[in-house]
Amino acid sequence: MSEPFAQLDAGGRLRHLVTLDGLGRELLEALLARAEAFAAAPARGDALSGLTVANLFGEPSTRTRASFELAALRQGAIVLNLDGALSSRAKGETLLDTAHTLRAMGVDVLVIRDSEPGVQESIARALDGEAAVVSAGEAHLSHPTQGLLDALTIRQCKGAFDRLSVAIVGDVARSRVARSAHRALATLGVPDIRVVAPPAMMPGDADFAGARRFQSADQGIAGADVVMMLRIQHERAGSGGSVDLASYRRDFGLTAARLRHAAPAAVVMHPGPMNRGVEIDSEVADGPQSVIRRQVANGVAVRMAVLAQLAEARRMRAR
Ligand code: NCD
Questions:
Q1: ∠ CA 213-187-189 to the nearest 5 degrees?
Q2: Ligand 1 geometric centre to CA of 271 (Å)
Q3: 3-state secondary structure of 134
Q4: In the sheet that 165-169 helps form, which strands lie side by side, from edge to edge?
Q5: Cβ distance 269 to 292 under 8 Å?
Q6: Distance 248 CA to ligand 1 centre (A)
Q7: For residues 164 and 226, is the Cβ–Cβ distance under 8 A?
């Protein structure tokens, strides 16, 4: 048996951020508070000066990658972008070799997105104490900084978590965004989390503990304070199979008419990239209830907060 994976140091600070599982409310609140301050005044800082951050994205990304890069640069780090570096696996180099190579070049933080489960944790274990690992998306399983930025956006719009109904709608089974949002919001005390999906996109019973499940979008959205739409994960074929887009839009797409089922002051979220006219209509995505651009802005702030805390944990250890 291998040792349990320790994301936190003895002082309860992040040494890595691979998953939100196991992180307590206090730590999430502290990260949100710090991110909130960055969101209010995106000051340049030097919390990361002297550190090198490498972005290793084995899957496409625009906003997540750009926001990690800005979050690092705005705090004084050196940033290395290695798109497709993980694909050197194809040339016979193992992932761990890539990680050790980067560490030998003095990289301090590895930001990793990969379609294979477990990659972030295995690199974090291998480099433990030498470099920090931050997940930027692990298969369909987790996307911790997205969960945090969604929580921050909800708190900014709604004030507190303890009376909210949040509906997570669409391709939930294959969504790492949904899993991390659920984890964050459950930890932060949201009492009513709803998973709204057609049968083929409904997660298994072991997943999304405590959430209420709806196969009707209108019922699932009814009275919700937050409606979080998801992209259909065509690239993760499998449980959803092929989807008839016209009937998907009819039954699950967020149209202006469907949104009227939600609470009158409901906010609409989407992690991007959006399939306009499929899971969400432009009228809604660009409408007054949409907070989608705010999510994007908060992405930078949350990643600044996470990187700053990792840097502190490293400095404490170096003493
Ligand atoms: C998501 C992702 O890659 O998990 N995008 C993002 O990080 N903003 C969601 C998606 O691709 O549907």
A1: 75
A2: 6
A3: strand
A4: 212-214, 192-196, 165-169, 226-229, 267-269
A5: yes
A6: 19
A7: yes
Would you state the structure tokens that stand for residue 154, as one six-digit string? 């909800």
What is the pLDDT, as a whole number, of residue 239? Answer: 46
Q: Which two tokens stand for residue 285?
A: 């995505």
Whether residue 4 has a cis bond before it, omega within 30° of 0 = no
Q: What is the DSSP letter of 209?
A: T
Which ligand 1 atom is nearest residue 299's CA? 8
Q: 319 CA distance to ligand 1 centroid (A)?
A: 38
Q: What are phi and psi of 142, to 5 degrees?
A: -160, 155
Q: What's residue 144's pLDDT?
A: 98
CA distance 254 to 25: 31
Q: What are phi and psi of 83, to 5 degrees?
A: -60, 135
Residue whose tokens read 């303890």: 162
Q: Name the pLDDT band for 242 (thresholds 50, 70, 90).
A: confident
Tens digit of each residue's pLDDT (9 = 90 or more) over 193-224: 999 999 999 999 999 999 999 999 999 999 99
CB atoms within 10 A of CB 111: 30
Question: What are the residues facing 41 on neighbouring strands?
Answer: none
φ, ψ dihedrals at 165, nearest 5°: -110, 120
Q: Which of 61, 172, 201 maximizes ligand 1 atoms within 8 Å of its Cβ, making it the mutation to test the pocket?
A: 61
- Ligand 1 atom closest to Cα of 61? 3
8-state DSSP, 202: P
Question: Positive or negative CA dihedral for 25, 27, 30, 31?
Answer: negative
Task: Please provide the DSSP assignment of 234-291 as one string.
Answer: TTS-STT-S--HHHHHHHH-B-HHHHTTS-TT-EEE--S---BTTTB-HHHHTSTTB-
